[in-house]
Structures are given as structure tokens and as C-alpha cells.
Amino acid sequence: MLIANDLCIMRGGKQVVANIDVALTPGQMLGVLGPNGAGKSTLMAALCGELAPTRGQVLLDDIPLNQWRGPERARRLAVLPQSSTLGFAFKVEEVVAMGRLPHGSGQQCDGEIIQHALVAADGLHLLGRSYLTLSGGERQRVHLARVLAQVWPGEEGQILLLDEPTSALDPLHQHTTLLAVRAFAARGGAVMVILHDLNLAARYCDHLLLLDQGRAHLSGTPEQVLTPEGLKSVFGLDVLVQAHPERGHPLVIAR
Amino acid sequence: MRFTSQLIALGMACLLAIWLSLALGPVSLPMMDTLRAVLHLVGVPVAEDNLQQAELIVGQIRLPRTLLGLAVGAVLALSGVAMQGLFRNPLADPGLVGVSSGAALGAAVAIVAGASFGGLPEPFQPYLLSICAFAGGLGVTAIVYRLGRRDGRTSVSTMLLAGVAMTALAGSVIGLFTYLADDASLRTLTFWNLGTLNGASYDRLWPLLLVCVAVILWLPRRAKALNALLLGESEAHHLGIDVQRLKRELILCIALGVGAAVAAAGLIGFIGLIVPHLVRLLTGPDHRVVLPASALAGATLLLFADIFARLVMAPAELPIGIVTVFIGAPFFLFLLVRGRS
């Protein structure tokens, strides 16, 4: 379990994350919403140990994250950044194989996991292609496969942090991606995902955290967070919220 | 191992380059005599008829020169790989962060003002140039690294810009020393700046060989981490790598490698840029093969450039730095143009 208590982060004299509590629990998927500059990515950077919080701490299994040895932490916690810049002509399977770096589980085992992860990210047909020849969306899926391979197949105690994993994807792959992440959670993994699409968040997340200027404006189930009042005050956007005709989760429509 | 055949091919090419480098020159030796002379030198019993001249030329002149070429080529190529991994850019060159120009500055000080120090203890006197060049390279790299560091992190782009400024600064100080130099040291300085394997001797060779072996043994251990670093510093951190430490180790390797190579053979440009590039075209970008393959290919390419340099105007000899830059600069432009299309 990954827990952050009373997290505060200052950057350039400005408080970008203030008094945030987060608990990522097995089998659950937490969605983080908020306007640009609300502190979503900064929060994620602190949760994965990349950025030291100004106050508060991040605990993985009750041990401060910065006390974990790198490879041990990496076997438990995988992170998909917003975008990766890779300027070298690695093959798709070599990029995915980098996810196995902390493991040392052997070539045969890794090979099978790379296949499974590519299937989950719908990228198996990209095998053998050079990364540099891929489109933006295909690259995003290859990196998803890489982080899935890092914590494959996913079990209790493993955690996945994703920063806008669907930003470059077509509508179908937005859903296949979040279904793959949902499957990871179903196997016992804990997930935090930053999303901009409110309806994707409503459909796939168990809990939502709505950030506004670094503070938690609302937190709870999609029904509790996705309210016209809350969205109006954070995004300044007038919306209608209705129930999805077939699935029942909230559906947000701009007015 | 899927890369074995490529490494074997490069190894064969390297052996061929060594053989040719020992045999060819102003006085060319028959290939078989060269082989016999080498075997005899290392203690293998062979027929000794008419071997004295070959053994003298090979043992006293060509073998140290060939070893110097091998070590300089391998170290420059490996430094290039490390530099391109560090900057995550296939067009980065060890000259970029000021290592080469720092070493050149140290050498200029030694050549022009060396006589006026006069202070080095007797056993170190022959190494004055090497020590100054090495210290210059290491010193400039340390300054650039220091400038690029903020809040415990190393900013590679700041290092790059600081490297440009330090290179310019070193250039102006070298200019000052050139202005102050008398005719004899001016000539030494000029030839040294053009790079040469001429005048190689065993006692000037061993510091470079030591650094070369250290870099060759150490860098491949970090091959997987270097692969991950190409994804980005955050990504490498997420994969469990201590990125700050890795960067420090790479910078140390580059400073040691380039400093020692420049100290031993002067400025030899573009090997660190071209070789990793050619190797990646052959093997792909995986550092587990790029590192050993670059060491072999760098050594081979430098030996061939040196053979060319000593044959083209024989018995006079072209500085090797002219040859490598003459091949390297157009190749770099070709890569730039090709990358744009």
C-alpha cells in the first residue's frame, strides 16, 4: 500500500501541492482530475519518489519511499510519465524489455511477459518495428506495455502510476488502455491515474480526487466528485451530469 | 547471443588493422615477417632468419604506436558512447563538455611555459605534457559539471552551454599561449593540436592503457542502466536506477578517457562521434553490444586512419587529426541532413 500523509510541495517559492492525503489500496483505481497546473503531475512525482516533498512523507508498506533500494522499489512501483522522449532506434520489444530491468527474471520469462504486456496494450502487431517509426499513440501504448511488463501480471502490493495515459490515443485505444489498467487492478494491483477526460474517469475509476491549485477540492466516488457545482468551481465550466443510460455511472456533458 | 557474429567480425577487422599497422609504413615489411617478429617478441619460438630489422621496427616503433592507436581509438569511441547516452542524443561528442579543449589548454601550458616551471621532480619530467593535459581535461569537466549541478541534480543542457563557454575560454587562453610561444614550442603546439600517434613510446603509453582497461571493464557493467537512461532520467529512476550516481560515473569516465587520450596523442576529433553512430547502424542501439563493438570499431578505425596518415605522403607523415576530421566532419553533416529528411 502506498500512502501519502499531509503532502506539501513548494516549487519556486510557490506551494504547488498542499495538504494532500492519498492512499492507494489493492484492487482500487484512483483517478486524479484538475485543470492544467493544478499540481497533478507534481503530486505524482512525489508519490514515486522523484521529488522530495517539502512536508509530509510517502510510505510504501510503512517504510518511507526514499529508504527503499532502487530495484526493490521498481519491482513494486511502476510509473508512466506523460510523454517520453526516446531518440534511439530501439525495437518495440527492446523498449518493453526495459520494464524488466529491475527483475533479472531471465530471458525466457521476460520474453513471455513482454508478449503478454504488448497484448494488453494492443501493441503485439508492432513487434519488430523501430520505435522511431511509430506514431505518437503507438509510442504511448508501447510505453504502457513497458510499465505493465515492469509489474506484470500485477498482484497485491504492486502499484501503477499513470500520467494521462490516454492523451494521444484514439477513442478505441483510450478504452483498451484503461481496461488493461483495470485488469491490473482486478489482479490486486493499486492504480493512480491522472485523466483529463471526465467520462473516462467516471467509468473506470473507483475513487476520484479533484485538485484545484494544489489542494483537494473534492474526493470520493465518481458520483460524489463529478457534480455540476464542483466542476463549475474548479474548471469554470457549466456542465450537465446525467447517469449513463446503460452503465449508470455519471456522464458529464458540457452545456 | 545474437550479437556474437557482429562482435567476431569487428574483432577480425581489428586484428587485420593491427597486422597492417605493424607491417606498413615508410619501410614496409612483408606481412609474414611482421607476424614472425611479433610472435618472437612475445616469446613464441619461430625461425629467426633475417628477423632483426623487422623485430627492431616492429618492437621499437610500430608496436607502441599501434598500441597507442588501439587505446586512443577504443577510449575515444567509448567516451563518445557514454557522452551520447548521458545527453540522450546520438549527435553528442566528447568535445562538447569541454574535456578536449581543457586538455588542449593543459598541453599548451606545458609546451609553452613548461620550461619555466622547471619544478617537476625528475621521474615525472617526461610526463609533464600528459599530466598537464590530463589535469586540464579533468579540471574543465569538473567546472562544467559543477555549473550544471543545482539542488543535487545535474542539468545536461546547462552543462552543454557551460561546455561551449569553457571551450571558448580555453581557446582564448590557448591563443594567448600561442602568441607568447617561441618558434620551437609553436611548432610542437601546432602539431600536438593536430593530433599524432608519432613518437609513441612504452613509458608514455601505460597511463593511457591503464585508463583504457578501466573504462573498458567498467562501462559495459552499466550497459543496461545506459539503455534505461535513453528513455529519460525520470524513466530510468522509475526503473530503479540511481540516476545521479550513473551520471557522475559517466562524466568521470568521459573526463578520464578523453583526458588520457588527448594527453597521449593530442586532439583527434570525431572518432567519438562517428564510431558509435556507425556501430548503431550495424547493431542497433542496445548498449550491451554498442559498448564492446564501439571499442573494437574505434580502435580499428583509428589504426586505419593512422596507416593512411603515414602512407599518403611517405616518408613525411600527415597528422592523424587532419585525417579523422576530414572524414568525420562531412560524415557529421551527412547525418544531420539525413536526420532532417
Automatic annotation (TrEMBL), chain A:
PROSITE patterns reported for this sequence: ABC_TRANSPORTER_2
Any one GO molecular function term: ATP hydrolysis activity
Keyword Ligase: no
One Pfam family hit: ABC_tran
InterPro entries: AAA+_ATPase (IPR003593), ABC_transporter-like_ATP-bd (IPR003439), P-loop_NTPase (IPR027417)
Keywords: ATP-binding, Nucleotide-binding, Translocase, Transport
Stored NCBIfam families: PRK13548.1 (NF010068)
Protein name: Iron complex transport system ATP-binding protein
Native source species: Pseudomonas graminis
From TrEMBL, chain B:
GO MF assignments: transmembrane transporter activity
Pfam families: FecCD
Transmembrane residue ranges: 67-87, 94-115, 127-147, 159-181, 201-219, 250-277, 289-309, 316-337
Chief location category: membrane
Record's keyword terms, sorted: Cell membrane, Membrane, Transmembrane, Transmembrane helix, Transport
Topology in the lipid bilayer: Multi-pass membrane protein
SUPFAM superfamilies: ABC transporter involved in vitamin B12 uptake, BtuC (SSF81345)
Localization in the cell: Cell membrane
Gene Ontology BP, a term: siderophore-iron import into cell
InterPro entries (alphabetical): ABC_BtuC-like (IPR037294), ABC_transptr_permease_BtuC (IPR000522)
CC terms in the record's Gene Ontology section: plasma membrane
Family indicated by similarity: Belongs to the binding-protein-dependent transport system permease family. FecCD subfamily.
Protein name, UniProt field: Iron complex transport system permease protein
The species this protein was found in: Pseudomonas graminis
